[in-house]
Amino acid sequence: MTSFPHSPEFDLPYQSAPHCLIPAPPALPDAPLSLNRWGFADTQFLIDSDGNVQLTGARYALCGQVIDRLLPWSQSQLGLPIVPGDAHPFAWPLSPPASRLDAAALAALQQLLGDDGVSTEPLVRQRHGHGHSQEDIWAVNYEGFARIPDAVAWPRGENDARTLLLLAQQHGLALIPYGGGTNVTAACRCPTDEARPIISVDTSRMNRVRWIDPINRIACIEAGATGAQIHDVLARHGYTLGHEPDSYELSTLGGWIATHASGMKKNRYGNIEDIVIDCRVLTPSGELLRRNVADRESIGFDHRRLVLGSEGRFGIITQALVKVHALPAVQMHESILFPDFATGVRFFHDLQQSGQLPASIRLMDNRQFMLGQCLKPTPAGVAAVKSALQKWYLRRVRGFDLDRIAACTVLFEGAATEVKAQRRTVTRLMQRHGGLYGGAGNGKQGYSLTFGIAYLRDFLLTQWIIAESFETTVPWSGVLTLCAGVRERVEREHRALGLPGKPFLSQRLTQAYHGSACLYFYLGFHYKGVAAPSAMYTRLEHAAREAVLQYGGTLSHHHGIGKIRQGFLPQIASARSRELNHAIKDLLDPDNLLVCGNQ
Amino acid sequence: MTSFPHSPEFDLPYQSAPHCLIPAPPALPDAPLSLNRWGFADTQFLIDSDGNVQLTGARYALCGQVIDRLLPWSQSQLGLPIVPGDAHPFAWPLSPPASRLDAAALAALQQLLGDDGVSTEPLVRQRHGHGHSQEDIWAVNYEGFARIPDAVAWPRGENDARTLLLLAQQHGLALIPYGGGTNVTAACRCPTDEARPIISVDTSRMNRVRWIDPINRIACIEAGATGAQIHDVLARHGYTLGHEPDSYELSTLGGWIATHASGMKKNRYGNIEDIVIDCRVLTPSGELLRRNVADRESIGFDHRRLVLGSEGRFGIITQALVKVHALPAVQMHESILFPDFATGVRFFHDLQQSGQLPASIRLMDNRQFMLGQCLKPTPAGVAAVKSALQKWYLRRVRGFDLDRIAACTVLFEGAATEVKAQRRTVTRLMQRHGGLYGGAGNGKQGYSLTFGIAYLRDFLLTQWIIAESFETTVPWSGVLTLCAGVRERVEREHRALGLPGKPFLSQRLTQAYHGSACLYFYLGFHYKGVAAPSAMYTRLEHAAREAVLQYGGTLSHHHGIGKIRQGFLPQIASARSRELNHAIKDLLDPDNLLVCGNQ
């Protein structure tokens, strides 16, 4: 560890620009987060006294509305009764394992970070030992964990992080960097065979937007800043990052880099690899730092490309240079209806080839479209008449089958001329494929739905429904065959596992690329009477993933590998490629201090 | 080497698409290449009996024209006489070093590749021991090399390449992969202290476009295919790759990957990292192969990102999956005049921010604009009157100073509506910045000039002018200060080195990115009477590069590092980052079989 010299000459990672320094923001008044469910503590789905579903709080448009169609529809989808009174309530808090951290190590951490910079509180430690996969949430609420972090540490900056690495080696500790804790790959799970105490390195106090360079439109941001925090600070200065993964309220810049994240508006702002120009990484064997960086270079080896997708295995990502954009002049939601998913895919492919993709566009299959409808209150009064008329028009005039309709949610964003040109192209291609506009309101609801859906998953778990998402990228030519193949395989496996009712499988096409598209699936089943439902789900999803690979899909589009999908790596990369990955890990972290990510 | 198992399960790198198989193309009737100058043997600048310059052959628009203003203008720029009769003719061929390859190794290579698959011919070997930096061309023609490859081998495909790696280990050979031989970083230079025989692995027989997938718009192409070959095959099927580095007639797909290349039309088609979806690499310690690849993934480690820019150090790149595009409906050249370079830069920055960049746009400073003018014949007759009128208009009506004018060459490419929208934006911003259109003819000439300029450099060498290009990426805010800083430093160093006359320094802005721009410089001086002109040039360029870094530029935008710039790496990357690069090299090539690229 004496071989870990700091390189102060690299402390100024970017130069020659007139920076607008951002004063250290006051600690943002973040609402408390839940310790056993997705998101904010003030927000959760509940069943009201009438047996209808409601979302608590006032954070989302959905909050406070009477959601009366969700449970009946879910019942019809799963082929088994969902009885509001018959819940499977969370058993949280189960008592988490005791901390194994010895007094000397704890004292050293406290001396470095202050008393409020370290915690051994059981539920805080437990929260830092998981993400939001179904296995994680199942374990938090019904089964508990065999192993969780033995302490949580909050470094305030690079100096703290550097010293943490030193302390880890001196005291024989293992580390797991922690951003927003939103991963769905078991990346933050503690290896059960890890003998050393494990410290979760929570980066949330490293959350400053340090400066904005308005001429070159670059910002320097600490890795622990969440999407929401970055959004707020940049917006106050007239800028946006444009990176909006579904988790962006909670997930962090460092987490995005480590996961190789993708955002809903990537058509306009790019994915994380397009956004991050440089990042600073402290590895146990030294610092990966650069100077004289720019958007595009040819400098042989560039550690940035290795760190993207590294899942926290190489070190602590401390800050990054990112592209920022002036806030767009125009933001316009829209929705489009197509007679079926296949038609929507053909439209989407044509739109991709036109080069005129809106900032965000997603195509939902009939099930996700219906789910969206069920998350609205049943129309009454004038709205009911209007809704009936709309259905009549769709069915009788346009010949749409309501059980097959697919829908796009669209977000146009940019200069007025740009949005106008995109809308013109969208209209032309929509008409060519027999689609019709469904209105801005539905578009906005569909776009926002993504922020509420994770709350829904945790609620459904208490109603005997276990569900999770998985995703892939697949060549355009394989989109429909992959969907059909995965469905066939899921239904077969569901039967083979002897699971009750019908599996729920639904997909949306969320990102379009030159030669391929991202498909995002929801998979779920009714688990009442099932022994070990979480393990059964894992087996079902494993079968689905086998089908994904069989039909030409990638192992992941943006969720990553983590501990969940690493078993599939031999199918997608040659032995030498995988050995190289491990060898690089050994080089950067010879004592395996960092026990996160794929192993 | 027994640890080098082939993984046949990865032989089909891409699936699920209806491929259009391309029959093995007949050996393309490429014109012979020069062995001591840039490009095709039939093409070179010469001085005719009237003392004017001409370009031989019929390959370029410039060929056969009387270029009467070039030498007088060069003389005025350099401040020293250029006398047509007083040349410094190339001394080529100097006698290259004898081959050190022993008979057993030669026999083994011949057995593998056939008699015509191996050469020990001295001038062929010498050509494979360099690229096209001034140091290279100086050595070829005036000084010779201390060390060149001891044989050239032409593998016909992956099986040959795999066996070559085995033979290298068995017979104690070093290897240097060779594409088009157009690098300007000394990447292909043989280390003089290398004791083993060195084999140049020429990939030119691995040049097939294997298949095109028309639905997903992907092609599978062998690494040795040149830009011109790829262009021809794809165009026959209605497609284009859209990658046009200045060297694209000669440089290869594998070379582009190894160099991290950039093309003139990157605004529309992207740089090489945007184009290549996957690549197959045979390293001495095993194969880096993938399956289930797509445009965008999150799979943890992806060897593609490590191989891009690897400069041939890790292994032999054998083939790649690349994005292809339908041939554009519209191609339209244009040119724009601005009163000066600084105004042009402000226009360019605004255009970048508009998001409406044409496929290609380059801004030349006054010197490069004048160089372009001097490569046309002096106008006579009606053209002379027209030219005089144009000059009068520029000077008197628009108030342009002819000695300060800067010019953009523009290439619009795409659908008609797209080109129309781009042109509208260009017109609006051009007018805002006081520019005016200079016509399609000048635009086309400027765009094409790049293909002839390398011939010019070699010709000028015989006229006592030594010159070379270098490039960087720099934040927009630093463009003008960097240009001024480099100029000041070059002039100072030119004086300090006691060089005669004035240095020639000229820049163009060739690529625009979100936060930065690529600046491409020509640097030259009159070397008559100078001892060791090539070494002097190296010192002058080194000083220029120091200024580039001092003013916030990157070490390279697209030329790469090679053996020329590796000494600067400690200034741009921390020690651990550089050690990591070397450690990865050691992992993949423990016996250092591959002695190319930065070391």
- Give start-end ranges of low-pLDDT stretches of chain A: none
How far apart the termini of chain A lie comes to: 23 Å
Oligomer: homodimer
Radius of gyration of chain A: 24 Å
Strand order of the largest sheet of chain A: 18-15-17-16-20-21-19
Please estimate the helix content of chain A. Answer: 25-40%
| Number of strand elements of chain A | 21
Summarize the biggest pleated sheet of chain A: 7 strands, antiparallel
Determine the structural class of chain A based on helices, strands and strand pairing: alpha+beta
> Which chain pair has the greatest contact?
A-B, 98 and 98 residues
Structural description of this entry:
Two copies of one chain form a homodimer. Chain A is α+β, with helices and mostly antiparallel strands and 599 residues long. Chain A has 19 helices and 21 strands. In chain A, a hairpin with a 3-residue loop joins strand 20 and strand 21 (516-526). In chain A, helix 2 (103-113) runs antiparallel to helix 5, helix 11 (341-354) packs across helix 14 (416-432) and helix 16 packs antiparallel against helix 17. Chain A is globular and about 75 Å long. The relative contact order of chain A is 0.13. Chains A and B meet through strand 12, helix 10, helix 14, strand 19 and helix 18 of A and strand 12, helix 10, helix 14, strand 19 and helix 18 of B.
Primary descriptors:
599 residues, 35% helix, homodimer, 21 strands, six-stranded antiparallel beta sheet, seven-stranded antiparallel beta sheet, alpha+beta
Secondary-structure blueprint:
The structure is a homodimer of 599-residue chains.
Chain A: E1 20-21, E2 45-47, E3 53-55, H1 70-78, H2 103-113, E4 118-119, H3 122-127, H4 134-143, E5 151-153, H5 158-171, E6 174-178, E7 198-202, E8 209-213, E9 218-222, H6 227-236, E10 239-240, H7 253-259, H8 266-269, H9 272-275, E11 276-283, E12 286-288, H10 303-307, E13 316-323, E14 325-326, E15 330-338, H11 341-354, E16 360-364, H12 366-374, H13 382-397, E17 406-414, H14 416-432, E18 436-437, H15 440-461, E19 465-475, H16 479-496, E20 504-512, E21 516-526, H17 533-550, H18 569-572, H19 575-588
Parallel strand pairs in A: 5-7, 6-7
Antiparallel strand pairs in A: 1-8, 2-3, 4-5, 8-9, 9-13, 10-14, 11-12, 11-13, 15-17, 15-18, 16-17, 16-20, 19-21, 20-21
